Amino acid sequence: MEVGKLDRLLEMMKEMKVIQQEIKNDIKKMKEQRVFKEEISVLKQEIRNQQKKNDGIKRKNEEKDIENKEIKADLEVVGKNIELIHRERKENEKLVNLVSMSRGLKNCNW
User: How far apart are CA 34 and CA 25, in angstroms?
Assistant: First the structure.
């Protein structure tokens, strides 16, 4: 009867060692999970910060696009004004030539 009790005690001790090892493994897993959660939290914060930077860059790019469109419109107006100036200059040259010709005709004694 004593031998049966000892065998039972040995078996219980083996079971307790197995349970202890399972508990150690569970604790290790929990620590790893905590570290992973902390790393995930840090990564999420980095993503949020990068998104803020990207939003700022996007906003600046939109402002630059608007400025570029305004500059392009201004350049188109300047180009049209230059064309008008050239046309007016040609017309003025024609008028000057006509005036010169009419003066020449007045000075001519027919």
Answer: 14
Query: What is d(CA 16, CA 39) in angstroms, rounded to the nearest whole number?
Result: 34
Return the sign of the alpha-carbon dihedral for residues 44, 45, 49, 55: positive
What is the tens place of the pLDDT at every residue in 56-86? 999 999 999 999 999 999 999 999 999 999 9
Q: Can you tell me the distance from the alpha carbon of 84 to that of 91, in angstroms, rounded to the nearest whole number?
A: 10
Number of H helices, E strands in the chain: 1, 0
Residue type, 50: Q
The continuous run of DSSP H or E covering 30 comes out as helix 2-107
pTM: 0.51
